[in-house]
Design goal:
By secondary structure, this protein is mostly helical. The chain has a domain of 101 residues: Hypothetical protein, domain 2 (Endonuclease III, domain 1). It is 45% helix and 0% strand. It contains 11 helices and no strands. The radius of gyration is 18 Å and the shape is elongated. 47% of the residues are buried. Bound molecules: iron/sulfur cluster. The site of iron/sulfur cluster (SF4) has 13 residues, from loops. The site of iron/sulfur cluster has 13 residues, from loops.
Length: 268
């Protein structure tokens, strides 16, 4: 089976397995997802979702956060770890949104990449979840799983994985596919325990590259994923309890997920 056919089959099976997979970072405005994504680095989505409540209670919009000092932001976001660098990036990012984009989040990839603290993973997440455009979010689950599944061969550099997946994944499927990889990576194809290949919906397809042992039977789906703190299901970044489902961001209504041109041809 070619990698492309394998990818299409995996996409279909994961759709059946996780029909509602989406981001578990809570947000109702695009700029809030930008903040949360930055805070989610080396932190669980669950903790981020709690910490941002305090942040937004004090600084409820882009202007307020742009006017805040780095120290004021750091004092609130410290529980997420890397407090100073995250606060510095959030401050600079909000100032750029205020000064260059009228407080809105730009809807093109290259502009997003220029925002302080925003890398390809975050920019793709915003493109997919906020703007409904093609996106490949290469987080740790994605990279581990697509290697095990044989969609890439020993590629661990996120940008290279992204570029390889653009060639295999239909653009309109990319964002949801990556969210489903996160679910699957937490529940079945786990990182901190051996993967539960015997119960995997991909067991007959997957070459299990790099997998030496398979794990004990996985818990029921309602149980906590074994490689994640008991919280919510998934997010593009890491973990979280779901509060109000992400609504359509006020400054960036979700568009249809199809049609827009992908970034597959973008130079690596
Ligand atoms: S068969 Fe095993 S290695 Fe392959 S995706 Fe499933 S759990 Fe992961």
């Amino acid at each position: 089976m070619t990698k492309k056919k394998l990818a299409l089959e995996i996409i279909e099976r994961l759709k059946q397995e996780y029909p509602d997979a989406d981001c578990t970072l809570d947000y109702n405005q695009a700029w809030k997802l930008l903040v949360s994504v930055r805070l989610a680095a080396q932190c669980t989505d669950a903790r981020v979702n709690v910490v941002v409540q305090d942040l937004y209670a004090r600084f409820p919009d882009v202007n307020a956060l742009a006017d805040a000092s780095v120290e004021e932001i750091e004092a609130i976001v410290k529980p997420c770890g890397l407090g100073h660098s995250k606060a510095r990036d959030i401050s600079a990012c909000m100032r750029m949104l205020r000064d260059e984009y009228g407080g809105a989040v730009p809807d093109d990839f290259d502009s997003l990449l220029k925002l302080p603290g925003v890398g390809r993973k975050s920019a793709n997440l915003i493109m997919g979840d906020v703007f409904g455009k093609p996106a490949i979010v290469t987080d740790t689950h994605c990279i581990r799983l697509v290697n095990r599944m044989g969609l890439v061969d020993g590629v661990t550099e996120p940008k290279k994985v992204e570029m390889a997946l653009w060639k295999l994944i239909p653009p309109e499927e990319g964002s949801d596919f990556c969210h489903r990889l996160v679910y699957h990576g937490r529940e079945v194809c786990t990182a901190r325990t051996a993967p539960h290949c015997e119960q995997c919906c991909l067991a007959d397809l997957c070459p299990r590259n790099g997998v030496k042992n398979t794990g004990a039977p996985k818990r029921a789906k309602s149980g906590a994923p074994e490689d994640a703190p008991k919280q919510a299901k998934t997010g593009a970044p890491e973990d979280a309890p779901k509060q109000a489902k992400k609504g359509a961001p006020e400054d960036a209504p979700k568009q249809a997920k199809t049609g827009a041109a992908g970034r597959a041809g973008k130079p690596a």
